[in-house]
Amino acid sequence: REAVENNELILHYQPQYNIHTKELTGFEALLRLVNKELGFIAPNQFIPVAEETGLIIPIGEWVLRNACQKNKEWLGRGGKEYCVSVNISAIQFQQRDFTDMVKRILEETKLPPHCLQLEITESILMKSLDENIRILNELRGIGVKTALDDFGTGYSSLNYLRRIPIDTLKMDKSFIDGICLNETEEAIAEGIIQLAHKMNLEVVAEGVEQTPQLEVLINKKCDKAQGYLFSKP
Ligand code: C2E
Ligand code: CA
Ligand code: CA
Q: How far is CA 185 from each of CA 151, 175, 217, 218, rounded to the nearest angstrom?
């Protein structure tokens, strides 16, 4: 609670690239907490606490507003459009006025809706699928992009994948790690990419750290990548 009051939250941005043209296409906003006594606290440590206490609602709104403001600022400077990706927690996504909140922030910050992508995880969607499909369609209606984050780490049910209206699949880092190690790993990554493309989804590889990994991804026609190989957040 003090961190929120004392402005100890800060956003870092990790660039995303088109791996074929090497063009910068956007950024993922990643939240950090820097406290005078405790120092740097990673999101995996404080976000679960923020979710338990309900503080994720105001924090999440703050993240969304700041990321949209920043992207609008960059748009104003160079004129080139980038897409900013914002992580959304389950509790936030299931708030009754979630779409209205997103709409309000886009109006406030004057960011074009297609310059915003919301990242949600599979586990969020599984819970109440029909209700979540409705929310995703509302978001699509206002022109905001959506991505399925950490794809492949949960149940990854193909039954729901074919029903949900999303734009992007983010292939989890765990699939990228082993991509150069053996054929099975490579086949899984290739399979995910092909499946996504057949469904008209764009694929982003997460956590690309080494050039050989990138080479395999280029070869397998993955669309975009982010990771330490390009830049830390
Ligand atoms: P995520 O959405 O899967 O974000 C990717 C994480 O991988 C980030 O960790 C990022 O710094 C890290 N990463 C990126 N490239 C590489 C790489 O090449 N190698 C390695 N080892 N790691 C890489 P981070 O920033 O610690 O965030 C952890 C998680 O916290 C995020 O996972 C996301 O689920 C959550 N999170 C972060 N910011 C927010 C936020 O604003 N709201 C919510 N609800 N969750 C957030
Ligand atoms: Ca993410
Ligand atoms: Ca992820």
A: 15, 7, 12, 16
